[in-house]
């Protein structure tokens, strides 16, 4: 159920008795020469929509600009800084609590949002408002991601190429797959990202000249469908698990005496 499609009298009924909501979040940032800037928010919205249809839980509009200053050198990348992102997400999540929601899954498709969503979840948990947790789609199916593709990458690689191939094939440029690989960083092991225990880079462009990581040339529509369905299934299971918990059991333990 997509919250913003409904009238308020409809939502008065629909939200009654519903305790769990789905909030998709992504980014608007460069994804190499072969994928659109919308990649992360399209993935988050696609998975959230599928899970909302399957479970009937409400999903909110998508937050499509995230914490992406590390991609700023590439034209078109938009970002907000961490404090504003955290406060914004916390503020609208508190609105959901006002409407009776007491648990939320942040359906996230951008690595740069992870720590900040967890911090927002921690704040809401600490004061007993609700139980909100961050879910990153590819971390729910690590074995399948490894099995399907020869050379993965953390950003604009085959796994994200597959998801957009499934969700918005018209926005994918297969004629640029080889250029994405050859002008980017196909093997993460080749980058000197750590020196004597210290991470030595700040921006994506420090490791990949065209912003792509990994080799997307082995993406097929069949693999793309498998990947999407597997991640959507994990999300549905997480939502059902969360909805079945007692609220009190999700809240912080009392101080030990
Ligand atoms: Zn991405």
From TrEMBL:
Entries under Pfam families matching the protein: Creatininase
Cofactor: Zn(2+)
Biological processes per GO annotation: riboflavin biosynthetic process
Record key words, sorted: Hydrolase, Metal-binding, Zinc
A molecular function (GO) term: metal ion binding
Coiled-coil regions listed in the entry: none
Identification of the protein by name: Creatinine amidohydrolase
Origin species: Halorubrum cibi
């Amino acid at each position: 159920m997509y919250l913003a499609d409904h009238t308020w009298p409809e939502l008065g009924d629909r939200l009654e008795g519903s305790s769990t909501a789905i909030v998709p979040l992504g980014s608007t940032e460069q994804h190499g020469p072969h994928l659109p800037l919308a990649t992360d928010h399209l993935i988050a919205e696609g998975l959230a929509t599928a899970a909302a249809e399957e479970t009937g839980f409400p999903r909110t509009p998508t937050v499509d600009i995230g914490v992406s200053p590390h991609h700023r050198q590439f034209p078109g990348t938009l970002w907000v800084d961490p404090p504003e992102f955290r406060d914004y997400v916390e503020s609208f999540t508190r609105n959901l609590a006002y409407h009776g929601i007491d648990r939320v899954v942040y359906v996230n498709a951008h690595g740069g949002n992870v720590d900040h969503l967890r911090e927002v979840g921690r704040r809401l948990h600490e004061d007993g408002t609700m139980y909100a947790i961050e879910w990153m789609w590819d971390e729910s199916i690590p074995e399948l991601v490894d099995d399907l593709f020869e050379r993965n990458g953390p950003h604009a690689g085959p796994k994200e190429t597959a998801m957009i191939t499934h969700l918005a094939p018209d926005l994918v440029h297969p004629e640029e797959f080889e250029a994405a690989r050859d002008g980017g960083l196909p093997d993460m092991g080749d980058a000197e990202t750590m020196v004597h225990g210290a991470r030595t880079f700040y921006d994506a462009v420090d490791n990949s000249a065209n912003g792509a990581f990994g080799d997307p040339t082995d993406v097929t529509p069949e693999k793309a469908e498998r990947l999407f369905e597997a991640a959507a299934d994990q999300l549905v299971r997480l939502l059902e698990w969360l909805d079945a918990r007692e609220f009190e059991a999700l809240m912080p333990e009392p101080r030990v005496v």
